[in-house]
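Protein modeling request. Please complete all fields; requests missing the sequence field cannot be processed.
Requester role: graduate student
Desired output: 3D structure, token encoding
Chains: 1
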Amino acid sequence: MKVHNNNRAIGNEGETKAIEYLQSKGYKILKKNFCFGKVGEIDIIAEEGNSLVFIEVKYWKSRLYGDPLEAITTKKQNSLRKVAEAYLYINHIYNRECRFDVICIDIINERLEIRHFVNAF
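Delivered output (121 residues):
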């Protein structure tokens, strides 16, 4: 249980850093941690101009297990798409330009590195 709580705390820290980054770029944050049952969760939902943006955040304090971008598998992409469709349906959002972004946050040589992949998949 302790590992799960620690992972959640690390995830929250990464999402907070991502939100600060997005707001500095002019994004309007609409929702954080939107869950749809057991299908999955979208870390951040935001607006940039006329676009609705579904954002997955990967925050790794080490590259010991590879690049955070590698964690966005086809299975993960499909899950995010289903959750996004649920969000659109629940909120009666139709005919809106949408995209999926990924934000990778790493600590490399004690320095924070943020990489933002617009329209990642």
